[in-house]
């Protein structure tokens, strides 16, 4: 009976590779060559998704995209110093009208005034994000999604003027879960329906690709989906090796 219980426990807590789920993020942290900051972000978000019963290959797809996006609490940079012509128009608008490059560009949410940020978001919302917007956080949420994220930040810091990194982490975790269980649930459902064998590097690649195309949607997303799919494969391999 004890042996049967041990087998059942292994099945419930492991991927088909036999690696316990709680060990997967340790492997990513200890065996990968990603930057320390990026590994910190990915292991936190990955742990959250695994705890909420998302398949390791799908989790790898999310993390493969985060690797190419941002970190927790990070504002999109407008400092296109070497190639100023490449700066998106919406960031030029923010730089000109709201001094974005000095106040927010490339900074962490922990280093800015939450009250000032909330006021800025209300101004941008009133214009329906037609001109002014910016990416924020590990997913680099933009526009109305940034507004939702800032509301979660507010909740976590109890409407104070400063937020801690732990509070920001909690907020971004909630944001991801809210989206994958709500407006973006169809992405996960489609991925599940199109990948009968979910415990493969191919499934991880497909997760990275579909998340890029339908959740992140960066410029040139078809091209970037290939890169992010390959990163997802790499991450899944590390997680399950």
Layout: helices, strands, pairs:
Elements: H1 2-13, H2 21-31, H3 36-51, H4 56-67, H5 89-98, H6 100-103, H7 114-126, H8 144-156, H9 165-181, H10 185-194, H11 201-216, H12 221-240
Give your account of this protein's structure.
It is a single chain. The protein is an all-alpha fold and 241 residues long. The protein folds into two domains: 16-70 and 173-240, no CATH class; 84-170, no CATH class. The chain has helices spanning 2-13, 21-31, 36-51, 56-67, 89-98, 100-103, 114-126, 144-156, 165-181, 185-194, 201-216, 221-240. Residues 1-13 have low confidence and may be disordered.
The total beta strand count reads: 0
Radius of gyration, whole Å: 19 Å
- Termini separation comes to 30 Å
Instruction: Count up the domains.
Output: 2
Percent range for helical residues?
55-70%
Characterize the overall form. Answer: globular
Task: Please describe the structure with a list of short key phrases separated by commas or semicolons.
mainly alpha; disordered N terminus; 2 domains; 12 helices; 64% helix; 241 residues; single chain
Summarize the structure.
The two termini are 30 Å apart. This protein has helices at residues 2-13, 21-31, 36-51, 56-67, 89-98, 100-103, 114-126, 144-156, 165-181, 185-194, 201-216, 221-240.
């Amino acid at each position: 009976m004890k042996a049967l219980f041990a087998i059942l426990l292994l099945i419930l807590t492991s991927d088909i590779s036999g690696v316990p789920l709680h060990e997967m993020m340790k492997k990513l942290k200890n065996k990968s060559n990603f930057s320390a900051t990026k590994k910190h972000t990915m292991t936190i978000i990955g742990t959250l998704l695994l705890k909420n019963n998302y398949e390791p290959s799908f989790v790898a797809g999310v993390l493969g995209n985060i690797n190419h996006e941002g970190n927790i609490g990070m504002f999109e940079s407008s400092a296109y110093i070497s190639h100023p012509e490449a700066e998106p128009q919406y960031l030029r608008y923010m730089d000109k009208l709201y001094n974005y490059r000095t106040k927010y560009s490339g900074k962490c949410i922990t280093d800015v005034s939450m009250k000032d940020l909330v006021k800025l978001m209300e101004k941008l919302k009133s214009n329906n994000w037609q001109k002014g917007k910016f990416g924020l956080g590990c997913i680099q949420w933009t526009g109305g999604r940034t507004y939702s994220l800032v509301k979660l930040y507010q909740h976590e810091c109890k409407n104070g003027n400063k937020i801690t990194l732990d509070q920001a982490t909690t907020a971004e975790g909630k944001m991801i879960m809210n989206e994958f269980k709500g407006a973006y649930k169809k992405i996960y459902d489609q991925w599940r329906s199109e990948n009968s064998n979910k415990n493969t590097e191919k499934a991880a690649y497909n997760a990275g690709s579909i998340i890029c195309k339908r959740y992140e949607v960066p410029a040139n997303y078809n091209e970037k989906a290939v890169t992010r799919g390959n990163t997802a494969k790499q991450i899944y391999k590390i997680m399950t090796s």
